[in-house]
Amino acid sequence: MLIVKREEERTTRERILFMLKQQGTMTAREMTAELGLTGMAIRRHLTALEQDGWIEVREARATAGRPSAVYHLTVRGDSFFPKSYSSLTLELLEELSDSAGSGVVDALFESRRDKLLRSGQPQMEGQDLAGRVEELARIQNANGYMADASQESDGTYVLTELNCPIVQVASVYKQACRCELELFRSLLQADVERTECYADGGKKCTYQIREAAGN
Questions:
Q1: How far is 200 from 173, CA to CA, in rounded Å?
Q2: What is the tens place of the pLDDT at every residue in 154-166?
Q3: Which CA distances in Å does 16 have to 5, 6, 69, 135, 150?
């Protein structure tokens, strides 16, 4: 996550992302000159951004002299900038529903659920519930949900998602949330209850997870 403790650090790191978005690639020296920081300060920010997956570094061959290390945005870094995908998706789903009926939209969400299930099942094999919950959190994190898993004193697991990349779609098409809950139950082979939902106005999505009855 692009979360830091001090406001000035957050602003500097965002400015770095914006510069890379505009320029494509930049060296640390170029960023130092642009931002008016010391070399040590800029490298501290670059190291943090690289470790968190926002930027990558590679060598660029110069016409003369030693190769230069240049930085560029990763796919995750590019996702920092707003996209209109949700609006387009909503328009397409509305057109599809109008022309072919709501059943086709249901089938699309169910097909997506089944595809995610097939993709995630191999990673769950051979793991106990704790391992499956941890793996699910990792999968959701990789998909931008900012997920975190913890265990309560009574043995219940809690999966929290601080972000929902499809919240605009899910706010209109509740099938998205239903299919996600069904996906989690199938992947975890456990009793899963959603207690808070981002698309329903919550501040996050929260899931209570318990061993399935009879296990």
A1: 11
A2: 999 999 998 888 8
A3: 17, 16, 15, 32, 33
